[in-house]
Amino acid sequence: MNIHKDLEKKINEFPGDLSYIARLLLKELEAGKRSNAAIEEMIREEIRELVLEEEDK
User: Fold this and answer.
1) Which domain of life does the protein's organism represent (predicted)?
2) 8 A C-beta contact, residue 42 and residue 25
3) Lower Cβ count inside 10 Å, N or C end of the chain?
4) 29-52 pLDDT, tens per residue?
5) Helix pair angle (16-31, 36-56), 10° resolution
6) More confident residue, 40 or 4
7) What's the rounded Cα separation, in Å, for the pair 16 and 55?
């Protein structure tokens, strides 16, 4: 699917942690194993961790 290839290409251009998180979220969405609320919580937690890491630098 072209959309999937384009999305994968854009995700690969993200900086390290963001690329990893985006791939992880994409897998979760494709699998349909988590609710939207669970995915939103996962995003919030990852953002919190990234912010804390940046503050420690």
Assistant:
1) Bacteria
2) yes
3) C
4) 888 888 888 888 888 888 888 888
5) 170
6) 40
7) 18
Q: In this predicted structure, what is the pLDDT of residue 4?
A: 73
- Look-up: residue for tokens 């699917």? 1
Nearest to 40 by CA among 29, 53, 31: 29
DSSP 1-54: -HHHHHHHHHHHHS-HHHHHHHHHHHHHHHHT-S-HHHHHHHHHHHHHHHHHHH
Amino acid present at 29: L
The DSSP call for residue 57 is -
Amino acid, res. 9: K
